[in-house]
Amino acid sequence: MDWGTELWDQFEVLERHTQWGLDLLDRYVKFVKERTEVEQAYAKQLRNLVKKYLPKRPAKDDPESKFSQHQSFVQILQEVNDFAGQRELVAENLSVRVCLELAKYSQEMKQERKMHFQEGRRAQQQLESGFKQLENSKRKFERDCREAEKAAQTAERLDQDINATKADVEKAKQQAHLRSHMAEESKNEYAAQLQRFNRDQAHFYFSQMPQIFDKLQDMDERRATHLGAGYGLLSEAELQVVPIIAKCLEGMQVAADAVDAKHDSQVLIELHKSGFARPGDVEFEDFSQPMNRAPSDSSLGTPSDGRPELRGPGRSRAKRWPFSKKNKPRPPPLSPLGGPLPSAMPNGPPSPRSGLDPLAILSEISKSVKPRLASFRSLRGSRGTVVTEDFSHLPPEQQRKRLQHQLEERNRELQKEVDQREALKKMKDVYEKTPQMGDPASLEPRITETLNNIERLKLDVQKYEAWLAEAESRVLSNRGNSLGRHVRPPDPPASAPPDGSSNNNASQDNKESSEEPPSEESQDTPIYTEFDEDFEEEPASPIGHCVAIYHFEGSSEGTISMAEGEDLSLMEEDKGDGWTRVRRKQGGEGYVPTSYLRVTLN
To answer: 563, 601, 575, 576: which is closest to 588 by C-alpha?
Structure first.
């Protein structure tokens, strides 16, 4: 079924229908255009949102970037950004493949439709023109017939009239004959015109207009097909990005699963672990002793045997809160008055008890306690901290990590300069063997510059290595002091740390100082010693056993080596710094990394 056969008389209907189809095509193009604008605005808002929440600082300068939860959040932002990119791709595909193509096709359809209807209207005008000519010839034939009949009647009336002259009769007959001849010609012309009009009309209704209608039908069907394809492009543009969007969603899920609370806790330890030893107990200051003595007494709390009741400088310093000026030479042992001990100052002032009033001594002792109480505030740092090249403004552990990082960077730069020097030497050899390739002398400035850089970097490496060695020794010393020293909690533990020879250096120093007899100078020092018995360390029994998961060399001071799979006795649990004290079956005791062990407590 076609329009030319079934709708031969529905010219206006077809004109309205084809115009409606083109309007629908234009409406769809406008819809897709607005949909594209929505997608672009959505993608832009997503990108602005991602930009708003992305970290402003580079990852290498942002400590928070090391946490898994922060990394997952950044990954989610990146996936959202990729998702926004896919929305932009959808908008681009819709704009190019739908809006532009369908708009162009709509213009072509409008031109084709206009051409077909112009052709149909011309055919209608031709048919109407033929019909007018037919009507004109018909009216002329009718008029000529009436005039011929009238002329014949006039001639016949004059012929019967006896009063009419012969000339009048002849003239009337000639007029009647002429009118009759004109009527005959009009008749022939009318018949010819009628035959021609019937032929044109048959051609118009059976050939010309059906062809035009069929062309319009083909045009409309092509338009509908193209519009349906445009409908399909809308979903096709979405389907093209579905795999990538699915990957974005999978990436978000992977980022969510990548959050590791244990890892973040370990990262926090690595970032902010200071490496300082834990503070010792605040010593008891017995202010009642001087009040019960006679004013003539010149010593503070000296028992009958002559030994001072205050603690010696070695012990008091070992239990003092460690935060002070970092990377500074150790000052000589201080007395409670804040000055050096007589042993540290050969020509210094005499013992405090020989020339000062006991109340003044107590005042100085109370002042010496204040830095220990206020030192905890140094944990938070200050805004006015001066950044030094050796990072001495940082805690020992952080200083060691920063120095290690700087040393690795210097080594990489040094290796790069060495490789560049070797390349320049090879290029110079090539220039010397083949002068036409270049002048060897032109490479001398670059070689000299490279050598200078190498020397400078070697000096930097040596400097950082020395600083790193000093920082590592300080970290191990603080770790030994922290782990080897017995810190008395409110409820004492069941066993004290062992007093074996394999303990760390700080413990050895404390033991040696406790075993040596007090010298004359130390007896003169007004430091309480009546609590010494509380700090005597006794050998401890294992609190569990552990198995070495990995091999450990134990080359650092205070550590012990172990083989993979070796059974060890657990002497002391990890105190939060990542080290555990163990004892080997063959003998020997020291610290190993906690992560290298599988621990079972008794």
So the answer is: 563
